[in-house]
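Hey there, shall we discuss this one?
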Amino acid sequence: MSTQQHTMRAAVAGDHGLVVHHDYPLPAAQGCEALIRVRLAGVCATDIELLRGYKGGFRGVLGHEFVGEVVEAPTDPSWVGRRVVGEINVGCGQCSLCRRGLGKHCRQRTSLGIIGRDGVFADYTLLPVQNLHVVPDHVPDEVAVFTEPLAAAYELLEQAAFHPEQRVIVLGDGRLGLLCAFVLAQTGCNLTVIGRNPEKLALLAGTGAHTVLSSADTLDQLAADPADIVVDATGAREGFFTALRLVRPLGTLMLKSTFADRLQEFDLSHLVVDEITIIGSRCGPFAPALAALASGAIDPRPLIHAEYSLDEAVIAIAHAGAKGVLKVLIRP
């Protein structure tokens, strides 16, 4: 990289929505950070929700799913030239949560393209080297870019026990819902995926998952014989109430959805009377996600609907938010 370069292109969320700048300041690695040239980035539902005001909105470079190449790493030059993906949360390292290994929940954390840290819809980005994972040479960028969302799906296995023949429902056939289904299908559980799009559900052929189109009759039938575990990956407030109908008493409801909305006037006694366990589920482990991608156990490429240049980032995010669209990629 030329040392004369001081600016770069970046898609920046601001008061007037998303704008692509061609003179955004090039970030400088501080402390244990690495400067990473972004090779490919993915648009996530969270990016769309941030632009709608989720968590008060976000000001800065958007985006957190990426594969890139390290170009500078002052504290550990051995990283230079490596192709990497990166965990998105950066804790303070000093508080009780960080000391207990809960840095992704640090109250002072920054989060790539989400909280207080510029993201990856840009030519370059920064992350501490301890957040980085090397991508095996044989794994193409179009596969590696799915590591972060696939890791979020693997978080389900960290939080609950999935047994063969256990009845599990994934609600939602969007980007994250399908990745959750790919992961859960590997456990041998009796998996049903409910969605609204036959083409999306068809991507699960061969996984062993049962797929059903959402309708009033379908939901009534499933609610009459509720599941042990229900995963809500709809990204919509209605998904929570549907999931609650579909989980049995003493069952577990796992929430993967993040959206800019609130549940108003919810009757909590339903949870108490039916003794429902609710588990919030967010970022997950990169190692099993990378291993599944490297081995070919999970091939996410059929989920790719479109690819855009960085200059077309505004169009890319609008496309990603359109009905029926799965993964949209941005290539700087």
Q: What stands out?
A: The first strand starts at residue 7 and ends at 14. The chain has eleven helices and 19 strands. The chain has a mean pLDDT of 93. The chain has two domains: 7-146+300-331, 151-280.
